[in-house]
Design goal:
This protein is of the alpha/beta class. It has two domains: 160 residues, 3-Layer(aba) Sandwich (D-Maltodextrin-Binding Protein, domain 2), CATH 3.40.190; 233 residues, Periplasmic binding protein-like II (D-Maltodextrin-Binding Protein, domain 2, 3-Layer(aba) Sandwich), CATH 3.40.190.10. Helices cover 42% and strands 13% of the residues. Strands 6, 7, 8, 9, 10 and 12 form a six-stranded mixed sheet that branches. It has a four-stranded antiparallel sheet with strand order 3-11-5-4. Helix 9 packs across helix 17 and helix 17 runs antiparallel to helix 18. The radius of gyration is 26 Å and the shape is globular. The protein starts with a helix and ends with a helix. The relative contact order is 0.16. The N terminus is likely disordered.
Length: 459
Amino acid sequence: MKKFLALLLALVMVFALAACGTTDSTPTDAPDDGGTTVTDAPDDGGSTAAGSVYYLNFKPEQDAQWQELAAYYTEQTGVPVKVVTAASGEYETYLTSEMAKEDAPTLFQVNGPVGLASWKDYCYDLAGSAIYGELTSTDYALTEGDVVYGIGYVIESYGLIVNTDLLSQAGYTVDDIQSFEDLKAVAEDITARKDELGFAAFTSAGMDGSSDWRFKTHLANLPIYFEYQDKGISSTDAIEGTYLDNYRAMWDLYINNSTCSPAELTAKTANDTLNEFLAGQAVFYQNGSWEYANVSGEGKFSDDQLAMIPIYFGVGDEANQGLCTGTENYWCVNKNASAEDIQATLDFMAWCVTDEVALKAMTGGEGAMPSGAAGMGFAIPFKSAPESSNLFVKTDAEMTAAGKTPVSWNFTTMPSEEWKNGVGAALSIYAADQTDDNWAGVVSAFVDGWATEYALANG
């Protein structure tokens, strides 16, 4: 009997050890280091990783939403998610600083091929990852050969946001504006009657660091786009500046038909501009679909009071020009993070684009966040994404469906941040004193600066 009991106890122990051994598994997307394990999946279908996530967010306007979504994910899964948001225009500097630390970001962003050149050696290959499989098109991935360095997670549009009530008070509708000459006539008429109407044509073209990207990058995209179209190219080592006269005409229109004197622009911030628009001080506000949550909703404007029109540039078939549409927001995973943190980050990314709550938060507007706050209003290129509630995203879709041609985002080919800063500084000097000599400074910063910075970046 004793021998039988001993044999029975031994068999029980063997089966118990075998059963315990089956709980260990290697994450499908983690590096195969032989020692990484994951916990059992929570009942809610959340993350299965044992690590944590550190997301260095590029978009200050969505900081509150990302903070809330990260906290919600942690509550649901137990996986710590830290979100840090860099100040506007400071992302590259902050990323460089954070990547040098032991607790570096596990999830970060690059703006396209030029940005990738600086960070390629830090990027985990996302080929075969769950989020890569969720893309509606591989065109939204940042790739070289078979390596997937980044995933474009939001498609955005920008143009001129319009207060349609004020435009109506001035005697116009958006249908009256189908070209640069139309826009110029309307803006200058509003300026001529500014005292009578009680508002200006344009919000301040602030050249403070929180705002100047709208002009040294987004507006500067237009002359690059049309030059690329002429040449049938998608990048260049030497921009010629063929359409810089059009750039000047648009800049003149902005700064001379504004809420403030051109000499005041260097001190005007992004908040100044937004507040001017919200206060009904101007009809037109150059910005993008990401700004929808800031201008719409309770206490702001209804969709009936808003519109977005193209930045007409006086070039080509303007009647069939669409909004400027593309992405400079590519998620990249830090390959130098631990295997556990890489897996946790991959899980979080996949959750963001498949979970019902996360999708609502990313694509929805008023009341879309778990707390009831406004969502991010993104158009996202993933299979499970619902239709965006963002008016400006819908406008882009409607224009494209009607046969209008979107203006592609070519500013991702700008050779460096220093090039942008040079153009911005020259624009500020010209705004304060609008002479031909000062505009020649803008042309030099644009053309000569491009060649110099391209050579520095590419050897």
